[in-house]
Amino acid sequence: MTIPAIAANGLRKSYGDKVVLDGIDLTVAAGTVFSLLGPNGAGKTTAVKILSTLVTADAGELWVGGHDPAANPQAVRAAIGVTGQFSAVDGLITGEENMWLMADLNHLSRRDGRRTAAELLERFDLTDAAKKPASTYSGGMKRRLDIAMTLVGDPRIIFLDEPTTGLDPRSRHNMWGIIRELVSDGVTVFLTTQYLDEADELADRIAVLDDGKIAAEGTAEELKRLVPGGHVRLRFTDPAAYRAAVAALREVTPDEESLSLQIPSGGSQRELRAILDRLHAAAIEADELTVHTPDLDDVFFALTGGTGIPDQPKETAR
Amino acid sequence: MSSFTLAVRDSSTMLRRNLLHARRYPSLTLNLLLTPVMLLLLFVYVFGDTMSAGIGGGGADRSDYIAYLVPGLLLMTVGSTTIGTAVSVANDMNEGIIARFRTMAIHRGSVLVGHVIGSVLQSILSVAFVGVIAVAIGFRSTDATVPEWIAAFGLLALFSLALTWIAVGMGLISPSVEAASNNALPLIFLPLISSAFVPVDAMPGWFRPIAEYQPFTPAIETLRGLLLGTEIGQRNGWLAIAWCLGLTVLGYLWATAKFDNDPR
Prior knowledge:
The complex is a heterodimer of chains A (about 325) and B (about 260).
Chain A (H helix, E strand, L loop, with lengths): L5 E10 L2 E11 L4 E5 L6 H8 L7 E6 L8 H7 E4 L11 H11 L4 H14 L15 H13 L5 E5 L7 H16 L3 E6 L2 H7 L2 E6 L2 E6 L1 H7 L4 E5 L3 H10 L4 E3 L4 E5 L4 H13 L6 E5 L3 H8 L15
Parallel strand pairs in A: 3-7, 3-8, 5-6, 6-7
Antiparallel strand pairs in A: 1-2, 1-4, 8-9, 10-12, 10-13, 11-12
Helix pairs in contact in A: 3-4, 3-5
Chain B lengths: L2 H22 L2 H20 L1 H5 L9 H32 L2 H7 L7 H27 L9 H28 L3 H7 L2 H4 L18 H6 L2 H13 L5 H27 L4
Helix pairs in contact in B: 1-6, 2-4, 2-6, 4-6, 4-7, 4-8, 4-11, 6-7, 7-8, 7-11, 7-12, 11-12
């Protein structure tokens, strides 16, 4: 087995009485995308801050880019690039000057610095805006500049803390393209997100972080297998038809309030036909039928306390 | 690269960044210059005649009062520009860019050193600006010798270094830009209760020790002596240097300790 790019063992961090990270373990293989997925306040940003040497851990063994962040933070810093949740650009100076600043701080020669800056501005479609103050940039442009600045030092490990939060759908897809490109260059990406589709789309492995603990870890497929299968959802407008359906079908989870019910089902043709046959036999007509296959949303809600599950009934039938 | 070369290189990069900010957005510096300039004109032209009665044991006129006032206002200019330091440090700390700097393999102190050197340069320029206005309205430093001029310049630079480190600390503990400008207000209030405008002898007895030993008065008395050739008094000279060095060391230790703390 090769040496992991990032590893943490028993990582703990508290702020006062509040335990933010309660002993998490994670391993990220070099050249892969690892996504830390979790709701707001789960501790994602704290994990990134610790692994990127911004704050110190209370306990735990850490390994980033071949070094221990606690013992040798400068060596870790030389290997990583960080794009935080809040834009880390200097708004008072232009995009180009921001890039030159990074080149200087990465100790590139003037010629190399200028060339790298120009190439990255070009690659991130910022050449036209290069001479404008970064404070005038749109959210998507700021994030692009932010990542371009991170890449000046050619880091082998990149931390992206919620890189698409607050971006419009188009900028979000652009960002996904950028992240895929980074990975194709062999860079290790540590990505935090609260969007399940994003983790599903980009990550090789996903860890679900909830309340300071890793609730589950694996590939998207492995995580989806953790939750029970899908279901068929029937919705009615006529209360009488709804009650008849509840009576006619077995194993249903009814929701009186919305006049809908759920039947566990893998969504295969045979299973659907069985449901439809039974409805037909009882002469019941549903107003709407939807097939729901398990996705990361189900995993997420099942693992992170279950509050706010959209199509789970709040009370059982009386 | 040795750690010293690294420190110099990164600090000069940070200094360039701060000077670029100052050049791009001069309004903050210019606003801060307004206070000492307005006070200079106010005290010379509006209050000057009345104020001059209180100095030199009577018989003084407006031009004597200009001579009395200017050294204090030059040091007040230093105090005033350092408010800008506190504000720009606080502003920086609220930006994500500082978090970026902290995760880069650069010399850690360079962020603060860049701010400090930039601010000292700015306050020297500000002092020169106020000095030119003072000369334009009749201030003359005819009795000063070249070594006295050099000493005066050195005192102003040292004083601004001391106040700047304190201001950097104030900027670091301020949660917002507004809080920073409030926290740094003593830097502009202290000259008002010093010997800048009236001699300490003219103040109530119980207040005199406060006015006499606070950092501004010894520095003002020393600068006044250097520029006008008057008696400095040995105590004032040493006190001024002690305050400058003391505040520099204190401010440096305070600011770097605050900067090294984990950010939330």
